[in-house]
Design a protein that fits this description.
227 residues; 10 helices
């Protein structure tokens, strides 16, 4: 059909493939991936639909919504679905998947629209993504990617003692954990001197040095030594 292009997409499951028809001019506006793919079809190098069968159909539909409306769509639902075990839906996860999709489609305009929505979500008290989702972001982006910088800055600013870091290396991955430590080292508030004698820090002040000493049982203490 002139002016339209077939796209075969799926859920990763071959039995669930679906074909979408999209206007070529819309599809090629901002994505270098689709610009190249549609050129090949016009030159007759391929007669097949554009193959997106490894992509998630829902995410692709959200991308189409943005192409046609200029608005970012999410599968918003106020509560996890009680009928699905371990379901805890997060709008921020949806957006990160869209961001990674935008990267694969070579569409930074879409990625920036998604990032704006993501920042709005965080500002409006949507919960931070899980460590596992952070790992996905690290897998799908390069070292100097701005999304990595954003996630690290949000964490350095928002994380406190209520957050669990128990399985962070396993769940978020070593690369992210290293980045997080480095970010916190730069951004943390350095405690000033807390003692009246104005020592620079707790290990410089004789009053507080004792908290770093090993405990010695009473019967092992050296006779006559100061406590
Ligand atoms: Zn002191």
């Amino acid at each position: 059909m002139p002016g339209q292009i077939n796209i075969q997409s799926g859920t990763g499951n071959r039995n669930n493939e679906r074909v979408s028809f999209v206007h070529t001019s819309v599809l090629c506006q901002t994505s270098a991936f689709f610009q190249t793919a549609t050129k090949q079809i016009w030159r007759g190098q391929t007669r097949k639909p554009i193959d997106l069968t490894t992509e998630n159909y829902g995410i692709f539909q959200q991308y189409l919504q943005w192409l046609y409306s200029g608005r970012i769509a999410i599968h918003w639902c106020p509560e996890p679905d009680k009928n699905i075990p371990n379901s805890s839906y997060k709008a921020t996860h949806d957006l990160l998947e869209q961001y990674l999709f935008g990267g694969r489609m070579l569409d930074p305009t879409f990625q920036n629209a998604v990032i704006r929505a993501f920042m709005d979500c965080i500002s409006n008290a949507h919960t931070f993504p899980t460590w596992n989702k952070i790992r996905d972001v690290y897998k799908g982006t390069m070292e100097n990617s701005p999304i990595r910088k954003l996630l690290l800055d949000i964490l350095a600013s928002l994380a406190d003692k209520t957050w669990s870091f128990d399985n962070i290396v396993e769940e978020a991955g070593e690369e992210f954990t290293n980045d997080l430590v480095a970010t916190l080292a730069v951004k943390r508030q350095k405690p000033g001197s807390s003692c009246k004698c104005k020592h620079m820090n707790q290990w410089a002040c004789p009053q507080t040095q004792t908290r770093y000493f090993c405990e010695i049982p009473d019967d092992k203490k050296r006779g006559g030594a100061p406590a």
